[in-house]
């Protein structure tokens, strides 16, 4: 059986489902910051939130989460 990824590494994810409202924002050339704010207001978490969840579960460390997420996600 072939395995993919890095053994011992835990992925974190950020999903942004595309719907009509998001399409309109993209078509109107909304900035990344505007889309990010809209997504957060809709309840979509980012990489940082996913990483913090994994950290609270004891599956990773704060240093690892900070090292793989964007600085602008820290609020």
What does this structure look like?
- The structure is a single chain.
- The protein is built from 4 helices and no strands.
- It has helices spanning 20-27, 32-41, 47-56, 62-68.
- The chain has a domain at 20-69.
- The radius of gyration is 15 Å and the shape is elongated.
- With 75 residues, it is mostly helical.
- The longest helix has 10 residues, at 32-41.
List the keywords:
75 residues; mainly alpha; 4 helices; 0% strand
Provide a quick synopsis of the model:
Helices cover 47% and strands 0% of the residues. The chain is mainly alpha-helical and 75 residues long.
- Kindly state the number of beta strands: 0
Detail the poorly predicted runs.
Answer: none
What does the oligomeric state look like here?
A: single chain
Q: State the secondary-structure class.
A: mainly alpha
Q: Biggest β-sheet, characterized?
A: none
Rg over alpha carbons: 15 Å
Strand content: under 5%
- The shape is elongated
- State the end-to-end CA separation: 42 Å
Percentage of residues assigned to helices: 40-55%
Give the count of helical stretches. 4
Give the H and E element order. HHHH
